[in-house]
């Protein structure tokens, strides 16, 4: 049964292995929410222009450090950097990135999601770079959808057309299927070799496509991969709360200014950074699996990326918190967070 009100839970400080910190002054507003909740964040490279070189990744890392809250309260926070994989990424660039501690590359199929126009047109064009990544022990982070077919079926199609051949051709390449959203993906990850694991977002655990579409379109729940049916949400909950080391936290928190969401052709992305760990706690609590939360948030992802588990801690308390209707999002704009104007049932405990 769910935990009693006031219950406290202390876990190792979580890591987020899929985060959009944006750029410019927006980064500082996002990090106000990120730094209290995470020790590390894998920073997505789909900026304008995309982060395609080692020099660009190091410059972006410097920008993130410069944008952190200036009260020095978050000494544990570290951005983890990846390159944006393109058809032109060379083995030499991979070698250079590995030497600078860059964790891997992000594979966006061209046109699959936000700022993916420079993405890969054919994975086979990247085989020399992927072989070097495998040799260097770097991670391939995958937006695992195709760009054809029914939008609700693009993840299963990707598994058959791209994922299975890729894993066959690179048996030692470390791979993360990011933000999986279907039962088919859960089943595939459970059957795949040990080098393949997956991240799961809190919004795919909390919502299905009815929440997006029934009674009117809710643009702030529109994301890619798109929310799926309830059978898929339940499969994701079972996977996340199972204690399997094949699944771990990756929020895909992806803020867009309110006027870019509430428009005739709104951007894909859900903003969850303001209460991400609390949302996961709510899901795990709902199925009496709080004992599995720490490993999902703080262990399995670090292990997959070859990083040490955090020695810092975070204490959660089952105490409802009100979510503001909007947050500042850089000068002159606002972002609408998940559960805008509502409540989250867990909070971060005050010192």
From TrEMBL:
Family matches, as CDD domains: DHOase
Pathway annotation: Pyrimidine metabolism; UMP biosynthesis via de novo pathway; (S)-dihydroorotate from bicarbonate: step 3/3
Gene Ontology terms describing biological process: 'de novo' pyrimidine nucleobase biosynthetic process; 'de novo' UMP biosynthetic process
Leading EC class: hydrolase
PROSITE patterns attached to this UniProt entry: DIHYDROOROTASE_2
Keyword Hydrolase on entry: yes
Molecular-function GO term, any one: metal ion binding
Pfam family, one: Amidohydro_1
SUPFAM superfamilies: Metallo-dependent hydrolases
Record key words, sorted: Hydrolase, Metal-binding, Pyrimidine biosynthesis, Zinc
Cellular component annotations (GO), alphabetically ordered: cytoplasm
Domain of life: Eukaryota
UniProt KW Cell membrane keyword: no
EC number annotated for this UniProt entry: 3.5.2.3
Domain Amidohydrolase-related intervals: 92-310
Family: Belongs to the metallo-dependent hydrolases superfamily. DHOase family. Class II DHOase subfamily.
Protein name from the UniProt record: dihydroorotase
């Amino acid at each position: 049964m769910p935990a009693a009100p006031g219950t406290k839970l202390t876990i190792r400080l979580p890591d987020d292995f899929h985060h959009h910190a944006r750029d410019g002054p927006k980064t500082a507003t996002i990090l106000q929410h990120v730094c209290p909740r995470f020790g590390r964040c894998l920073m997505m490279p789909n900026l304008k222009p995309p982060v395609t070189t080692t020099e660009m990744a190091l410059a972006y890392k410097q920008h993130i450090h410069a944008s952190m809250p200036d009260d020095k309260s978050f000494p544990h926070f570290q951005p983890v950097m990846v390159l944006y994989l393109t058809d032109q990424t060379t083995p030499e660039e991979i070698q250079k990135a590995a030497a600078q501690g860059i964790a891997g590359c992000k594979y966006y199929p061209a046109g699959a999601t936000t700022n993916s126009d420079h993405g890969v047109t054919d994975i086979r064009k990247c085989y020399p770079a992927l072989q070097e990544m495998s040799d260097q022990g770097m991670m391939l982070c995958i937006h695992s959808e195709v760009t054809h077919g029914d939008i609700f079926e693009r993840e299963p199609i990707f598994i058959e057309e791209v994922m299975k051949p890729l894993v066959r051709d690179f048996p030692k390449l470390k791979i993360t299927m990011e933000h999986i959203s279907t039962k088919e993906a859960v089943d595939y990850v459970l059957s795949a070799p040990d080098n393949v694991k997956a991240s799961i977002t809190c919004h795919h655990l909390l919502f299905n496509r009815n929440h997006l579409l029934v009674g009117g379109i809710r643009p702030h729940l529109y994301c890619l991969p798109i929310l799926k049916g309830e059978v898929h949400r339940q499969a994701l909950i079972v996977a996340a709360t199972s204690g399997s080391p094949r699944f771990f936290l990756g929020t895909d928190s992806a803020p867009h200014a309110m006027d870019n969401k509430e428009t005739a052709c709104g951007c894909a992305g859900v903003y969850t950074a303001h209460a991400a760990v609390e949302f996961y706690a709510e899901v795990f609590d709902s199925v009496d699996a709080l004992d599995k939360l720490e490993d999902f948030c703080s262990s399995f992802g670090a292990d997959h990326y070859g990083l040490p588990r955090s020695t810092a801690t975070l204490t959660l308390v089952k105490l409802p918190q009100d979510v503001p209707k909007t947050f500042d999002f850089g000068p002159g704009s606002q972002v609408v967070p998940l559960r805008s104007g509502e409540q989250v049932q867990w909070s971060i405990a005050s010192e």
